[in-house]
Each structure stands twice: as C-alpha cells, then as structure tokens.
Amino acid sequence: MQKTAYICLIIATLCWGGNAVAGKMAVGHISPMMLTFWRWFLASGLIFAISVPQLIRDWHVARRHLPLLCFYGIVGYTTFNAVLYSALKYTTAINVTIEQAAIPMTIFFINFVFFRMKVSLAQIMGFALTLTGVALTAAHGDLASLLQLTLNFGDALMIIAIVAYAVYTVSLRWKPPIHWRSLMALPAFFAFLTTIPLLAWEWSAGNVLWPDTKGWMIAIYTAVFASLIAQILYIFGVERIGGNRAGLFINLVPVFGMLLSVAILGEDLQTFHVVALVLALSGITIAEWGKPAAA
Predict the structure, then answer these.
(1) Which of 249, 205, 83, 243 minimizes the C-alpha distance to 156?
(2) For residue range 142-197, what is the model confidence (pLDDT) as tens digits?
(3) 183-210 pLDDT per residue, tens
C-alpha cells in the first residue's frame, strides 16, 4: 500500500515539475490569470465528464461540506497556481525553485503547531538532505551563488503560494468521505469560478494576453497533467501516508523541473543534476525510515 503511495507521489511531483517548466514557457504566450482560467475551465470540464454519476451518488454527503470543498478549490488550486504564474514575471527561476522547497517545512510547522504531530530527528535530517539537493539544483551546482539572492515582489508572492499549498495539504485531513472523483470535481469547479474575477482584474488592468498556439498547448498540459492527474495522485498519497510524509515528496518538484528543462528546453544535463536527484531521493528515504511510530 505504501509503495503504491510513493509511486503516486513521484508521478504527481513529476507532473508538477512539468508545470513549473510550463510556467516558464508561458511568459509571452499567455498571461498568468488567463492561463489559470483556462487551466481550471478545461480541468473542471474533464473531471465533470467522468464524475457526474459519482457526484450524484455523493451529493447527499458533499453538499454538507461545500464550504470546505470550496476552500480546497480557492486555496489549493486557484491561489497557488495564480500566484506562482504571477511570481514568474517578477523573480528568477532560481528563487522560485528554492522557495517551493519550503512547502514541506511549512507543512511540518503547521502540523506541529496546531496538531502537535510528532516529527523525528530522521525526518528533520531527511528534509535537510532533500533541501540541499534542491538548493544544489537551483544554484546550478554552485551553492555559493545562493548568498547573492535578493527578495523582490515575486519572492513575496511565492511566500503566499507556499503558505496556501501547505494549508491545503494539511486541511486534507478533514476531507469528506466521498469518492475521489467528487473530491476533484467540486474543488475544480470552485477553482474555475474564482478565476473569473481574477481574469476580469487582469483584463481591466490591460495585462491580458490571449493564448497563441503555444499558449493553448501549455494550458492543455496544465489542465490534464498538472491539475487532473497530479491532484488525484497527490490526494491518494496524502490519504495513504499522511500530510507530513507526503509533503516531503514536494521537494522532488524542482528537481524534476530541472530535468524536464533539460529534456524539453534543451538545457545541458550536468553532474550536479544527478547529485541533486540522489540527495532528494535519499532524504525521502531517510525521513520514511525514521518516521515516528505514531505516524
């Protein structure tokens, strides 16, 4: 059961790594709120196409939890992605990559402060090891370059995105007892609804960029892989091994993002890419091996 959860979480982070690459490629081809709008418009359509019969069966339970399901859509889906795509306009890919690695630490912190969830020394060591791998990837093999990073508006936006997704992950502990299709469909629908005022705001500011051919391809990728497939697998992983342990896998997102940049954008694969991946996987292994007995 746990092995299946690990595989699901790895595939989910691979899809999200592709989302990071898509976000970089989207600049100049589709504006951030337009991308977020089409992402959830297409994703909610796909999810509802396969979920309507199940949603009808679950409705008597789901309707009692609509505020929570709406919260999932607003915070975990719309806020995180809209802020992430916006941040890429103001800050560097190195900054965003490193900042995303703070998501697991934020999850640990929230769980400890509000739920007194135990954290072992091995988990802390594992997190530190994976964070080192992520930092090595972001710094392109030169850790000294991290000392030159500066905080700007984009970095501040990423802090909002980090907190939003950490809160979403922790809040999955209260998800209603409904089928995963229903659990995907309703938050995705609420995510789509909340992108409409964001798109209107972008339009009124004169910053809307209608997607060209490349923009449409990026939007379709984010809808199918980063929204539908990745979210389903992540929910499954959190359900099987818990938010703390599942959150640690998020450290793989920037590593996969770098590797996909090599494959898709033609960047050179260097030794530090391999070392970083080994560090991240080793950190996850150590944290899993040394998890608290009560986890």
Answers:
(1) 83
(2) 777 666 666 678 878 888 998 999 999 899 889 999 988 898 899 999 999 999 99
(3) 889 999 999 999 999 999 999 999 999 9
Write down the pTM of the prediction.
0.78
Q: Phi/psi class of residue 28: alpha, beta or left (left: φ > 0; alpha: ψ in -120 to 50)?
A: left
Give a three-class secondary structure readout of 226-291.
HHHHHHHHHHHHHHHHCHHHHHHHHHHHHHHHHHHHHHHHCCCCCHHHHHHHHHHHHHHHHHHHCC
The secondary structure element, H or E, covering residue 160 is helix 153-171
Tell whether 259 is covered by a domain: yes
Higher pLDDT, 10 or 104: 10
Closest to 104 (Cα-Cα) out of 150, 63, 162: 162
Domain range holding 32? 2-289
Q: CA-CA distance, 178 to 171, in Å (whole number)?
A: 15
Q: Say if 294 falls within a structural domain.
A: no
Q: Which amino acid is at 263?
A: A
Q: Does 295 score more than 50 pLDDT?
A: no
Amino acid at 99: E
DSSP one-letter string for 87-139? HTTTS-HHHHHHHHTHHHHHHHHHHHHHH-----HHHHHHHHHHHHHHHHHHT
Tokens 């342990």 appear where? 245
Owner of token pair 């912190």: 109
Please report whether residue 228 resides in a domain. Answer: yes
Number of folded domains in the chain? Answer: 1
Task: Please state, in angstroms and rounded to a whole number, the distance separating the CA atoms of residues 50 and 164.
Answer: 28
Would the CA dihedral through 164, 281, 155, 261 be positive or negative? negative
221 occurs within a structural domain: yes
